[in-house]
Amino acid sequence: MNTTTNAAPTGNAPEPKRRYRGSAVEERRAQRRQQLIDAAVRVYGENGYRHSGVKQVCDAAGLTQRYFYESFAHSDELLIAAYEQAACWMREDNMAAAQAAGKDQVLRSRAMLRAFFQALKENPTIGRLLLIEIRGISPAVDKAIEKALKATSDDIARVLARPGKPFDELLQAGILGGVIHIALHWMASEYRTPVDAVTDTALKLGVSLLDEDS
């Protein structure tokens, strides 16, 4: 006769792995969200936001449309997420170039500008997303643009301004806008002008900011 009985759970028994399962679910959800953002950068950059639907992005991400609404209420939210990711990547690339150029302000300025234009030429889909497709969509998108431009201005001041001598904000905004318009004109010409020549042209604007700081 088998006298073995099942012992009641003790306080030392392991708890059900609900936290682990919950964590795994969140990780998969985050992964799907990232897949959608990466796909949106490609789709919006190649086809244009206004000519791209949710289904196209989901197909490019390898996901069904129900997963889109798991992370985003509408397509403008995905556009903002894609824009912010691309803008952050561009800023990090520009900052790395400036830091590698040494301490001279002009050399740093040129390095940042060259990195910017080189990235636009090598990644035309990102350039189109950042500078063309993003305009005039909605107030929320416009707010995201202003936030990204402010972050770029802060980066410029951080690597170029002398301690205790901040740049003129209006002049800085004007120069940044001028550089963007140079980029748009260059993109419209299908990058006909060499990167170094475009950089030197834009640097003429940047130097005026440095002269104001001297």
Short characterization:
The chain is mainly alpha-helical. The protein has helices at 18-47, 54-61, 65-71, 75-100, 105-122, 124-133, 139-160, 169-188, 195-213. Helices cover 75% and strands 0% of the residues.
Short key terms for the protein model shown above:
single chain, 214 residues, Tetracycline Repressor, domain 2, elongated
Structural overview:
This protein is mainly alpha-helical and 214 residues long. The chain has a domain of 139 residues: Orthogonal Bundle (Tetracycline Repressor, domain 2), CATH 1.10.357. It is elongated, with a radius of gyration of 24 Å. The chain starts with 17 loop residues before the first helix and ends with a helix.
CATH class of the domain at 75-213: Mainly Alpha
- Biggest sheet layout: none
Computed over alpha carbons, the radius of gyration is 24 Å
Oligomeric status = single chain
Beta fraction: under 5%
Residue share in helix: over 70%
Beta-strand segment tally: 0
Distance between the termini: 97 Å
Tally of contiguous helical segments: 9
**What integer is the average pLDDT?**
87
CATH architecture of the domain at 75-213: Orthogonal Bundle
The arrangement of helices and strands along the chain is HHHHHHHHH
CATH level 3 topology of the domain at 75-213: Tetracycline Repressor, domain 2
